[in-house]
């Protein structure tokens, strides 16, 4: 499930082929801030617009500029290198003396705004992201493309984890299995065979755990897309409140739940695996057990439990907020929309068709 092109489509056959991200300006992301600066404190909040740089590179640049360790740099989310993105960073300056902001400016980095704040910017501290995507060499019937976009605007999207989560060629899941000490195919014929656990660096361990969790979630979402329940829920469903990590249920189906679901106030949810029993019951529990019980699913689950991660949930559905589109030419389509934090713009492209980036299908 690590290759997006292998995931099922929720709205029917593809309606277009296109080229995506031929230049950084074809992929623009602007963070939606979750709070206003405090105005006082020893953390300098910087809103930066970057081109062709990833978040880690900018964090290192800020640390050198401020003369501090990278631990003193905060940011709410990770942003792609091959894009033009606007995002916040915080820089810890206990003496409230900042170097000249003009020295940060380069052709690929611009300071948009600065203000003092009373604490480091934590991960996830944003309302969402606004995307502007340009598709080129578009092939397909305009009427069918616009009908598909209208369906997405009205019904939302399956909330897939994107390929970025799984590493080059999807290799992070295989590496996670090695880290967990899962026996390879050649050893599985030996009863009780288990390979030695592979030691990895702390930062790599976090990436591999996330990849394993994401893989299991995508397997459940695959089953839910195939049976059509990704947007309507099942008996025994645990519901997630939109815009939060709060969940509730299971509870009997009611007109009130139906109204909230239609209004995108709540979403069906899927597992982010860890220790403890999932809250789901009935048909929902049966579907998840089957989806996660096949192939290397049990090994991934056991590894996440051994790592002492806790059971969490993630919305199966995401809303493409204020989805708009504009044809710049017969074969050039611009898309504008917002997504909640942690959701992937490539999920929308997947529902349109084969969108190619550097000879890859996303």
UniProtKB/TrEMBL annotation:
Keywords: Isomerase, tRNA processing. Pfam families: TruD. Transmembrane segments: none annotated. SUPFAM superfamilies: Pseudouridine synthase (SSF55120). Residues 156-318 form the TRUD domain. The active site is at 80 (nucleophile). It catalyses: uridine(13) in tRNA = pseudouridine(13) in tRNA. It comes from the Bacteria. This is tRNA pseudouridine synthase D. It comes from Pseudoxanthomonas winnipegensis.
């Amino acid at each position: 499930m690590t290759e997006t092109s292998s995931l099922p489509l929720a709205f029917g056959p593809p309606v277009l082929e296109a080229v995506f991200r031929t230049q950084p300006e074809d992929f623009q992301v602007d963070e939606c801030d979750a709070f206003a600066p405090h105005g006082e404190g020893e953390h300098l909040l910087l809103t930066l617009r970057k081109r062709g740089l990833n978040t880690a590179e900018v964090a290192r640049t800020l640390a050198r500029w401020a003369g501090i360790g990278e631990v003193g740099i905060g940011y709410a989310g990770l942003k792609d290198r091959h894009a033009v993105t606007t995002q916040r960073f915080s820089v810890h300056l206990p003496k409230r003396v900042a170097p000249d902001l003009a020295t940060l400016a380069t052709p690929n980095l611009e300071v948009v705004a600065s203000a003092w704040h009373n604490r480091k910017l934590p991960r996830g501290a944003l309302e969402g992201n606004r995307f502007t995507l340009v598709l080129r060499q578009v092939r397909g019937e305009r009427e069918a493309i616009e009908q598909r976009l209208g369906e997405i605007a009205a019904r939302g999207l399956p909330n897939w984890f994107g390929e970025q989560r799984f590493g080059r060629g999807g290799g992070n899941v295989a590496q996670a299995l090695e880290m967990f000490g899962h026996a390879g195919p050649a050893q599985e014929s030996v009863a009780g065979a288990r390979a030695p656990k592979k030691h990895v660096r702390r930062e790599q361990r976090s990436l591999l755990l996330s990849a394993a969790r994401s893989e299991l979630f995508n397997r459940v979402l695959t089953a839910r897309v195939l049976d059509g329940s990704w947007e309507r829920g099942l008996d025994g469903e645990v519901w997630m409140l939109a815009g939060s990590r709060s969940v509730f249920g299971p509870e009997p189906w009611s007109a009130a739940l139906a109204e909230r679901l239609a209004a995108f106030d709540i979403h069906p949810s899927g597992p982010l695996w860890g220790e403890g029993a999932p809250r789901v019951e009935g048909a929902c529990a049966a579907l998840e057990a089957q989806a996660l019980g096949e192939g290397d699913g049990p090994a991934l689950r056991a590894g996440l439990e051994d790592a002492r991660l806790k059971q969490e949930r993630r919305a199966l559905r995401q809303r493409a907020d204020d989805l708009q589109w504009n044809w710049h030419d017969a074969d050039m389509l611009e898309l504008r929309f917002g997504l909640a934090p942690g959701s992937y713009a490539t999920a929308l492209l997947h529902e349109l068709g084969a969108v190619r980036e550097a000879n890859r299908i996303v």
